[in-house]
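FIELD: query
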Amino acid sequence: MKHVVLGLVGVGRIGVMHARNIASLNGKLNPQGIAVGLRLTDVAADHARSVAAELGAEYLPSVEALIASGIDGLVIATGTGTHPELIRAGVEAGIPVFCEKPVAMSVADALPVLDDIRDRQGVVQIGHQRRFDAGYLEARRAYQAGELGWIHSLRAVTCDMTPPPVEFLATSGGLFRDCSVHDFDILRWLTGREIVEVFAKGSNNGDPAIGAVGDVDTALAVVTFDDGTVGTVSASRYNGAGHDVRLEIQGSRSSLMVGLDDKAAMASAETGVTFPAGHPHQTFAERFDQAYRSEMEAFVEVILGQRENPCTPEDAVAASRVADAAQESLATGLPVSLARTALA
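FIELD: result
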């Protein structure tokens, strides 16, 4: 039996979710079974010890101790500001790295990290979990198979049921960077095309404190692709019906909607229509539960050399470039071309 030991840094909300998913992996990756061990650390030592005890994992007192313990892969689930140094630590140790998006607080900060990864031939998978969601995978398959024809319109939606704490929003980089970056990534991934221009608008009709920290609670971006195709990306912090993540793809031959199931956070205004009848998802963790599990499975497969990296740092930074452009357009009221901010 093969053995893989993952080291996790950060056991906040998403870190605990990753820890539980890692702990559930044993024997699920192939018919022979793979033993997956977990070691973890966090500056909140007591909390980290508690999580470790719950999951039968090993607690270590520092990142340095974690890396020195002989782990096979490093999982980073800490605040964005720490991502560059932790990615570098894993790459310098010759360990494959999984890091939650984004690579860094800004594209400018991320570019030197990309250089360091390339120089050391590091393996770094970035956490854009929608690439593992069944609906998005089917939409991509259908498009690549020619079943939709050529795409004339794309409409992406990401809406939280309630906003996160204002303290988080003050350091998140803005709604497009924190939230819509997932839509920008999935649009590039699904179409295989680059977004070359963004024009954004936003509003604040909810908590005035969100505006006070420089963010908006609702926003819309019109995006233009390099072949002239247009799409929209909308986001909100106040979708009382539930957590709403959808993508509408309209083609010359057919159309598809990702996220249109019995738990969709909407209701029909048409007489006699009862769909959807299920209870809507409340958070992103529920909506993408299986995708997060599959994402961590994929990371173990990357470590074992069984698959290609499903989301490279270059992919993630390309999505962040679009988010940066959207934030700039939101601030200036003008469309922003991405040609002038091409990656090195």
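FIELD: remark
The chain has a mean pLDDT of 94.
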